[in-house]
Design brief:
The chain has seven helices and nine strands. It is of the alpha/beta class and about 180 residues long. The chain folds into two domains: about 60 residues, no CATH class; about 110 residues, Oxidized Rhodanese, domain 1 (3-Layer(aba) Sandwich). The chain has a five-stranded parallel β-sheet. A two-stranded antiparallel ribbon has the order 3-9. The chain starts with a helix and ends with a strand. The N terminus is likely disordered.
């Protein structure tokens, strides 16, 4: 995969401006080694985001893999589990099929407050080596939750970019709580 990305990003033959980049650091440090087969559509939709991230001299490689909903859907079909970190009310109004809801934040008055037992709650449902796709409503809470999980030594964490709203816009299957 690194060879394909290096060829697309660095050959000068690609016509897309996002692919004309000179990597500021070795590609292996910025592109996760995927353990699953990706369709060419999923790979193509994921690559421009990463290529653009490489073009910024100040960008840092995040230890969290953020993937578009199409890739998240493929991961879930391949056996990954979905951790929905939205509030219970958001979850009840609609969620990804088979999702486990553990709020990263609780609604308190007009705002949100951090769930101080988040890691403890996650430990009751997931193992440290489980392959977990983390999602929220629009992407910010899941990113924070994913960073906290990685810091707590969870090794199979993937963040779903765009959250549940992007999932719905893509027409992916959903369900509501009964």
């Amino acid at each position: 995969m690194e060879t394909l990305i290096r060829k697309l990003c660095c050959s000068g033959r690609a016509n897309h401006p996002a692919l004309h980049v000179r990597p500021p650091r070795p590609l292996a440090s910025c592109f996760p080694v995927f353990k699953w087969p990706l369709s060419s559509l999923a790979l193509a939709s994921h690559m421009p985001t990463r290529a653009r991230a490489l073009s910024s001299e100040s960008s840092q490689c995040s230890p969290i893999k953020a993937v578009p909903v199409q890739v998240a859907h493929e991961l879930l079909n391949a056996g990954h589990r979905y951790l929905d970190v939205r509030t219970a009310e958001e979850f009840a109004s609609g969620h990804i099929e088979g999702a486990v809801n553990i709020p990263y934040m609780y609604k308190v008055g007009p705002g949100l407050t951090k769930n101080l037992k988040f890691l403890e709650d996650v430990e009751t449902k997931f193992g440290k080596d489980d392959e977990i796709v983390v999602g929220c409503q629009m992407g910010k809470r899941s990113q924070m939750a994913a960073e906290e999980l990685v810091a707590a030594a969870y090794t199979g964490i993937t963040d779903m970019a765009g959250g549940y709203m992007a999932w719905m816009r893509s027409g992916m299957p959903t369900e509501t709580s009964v």
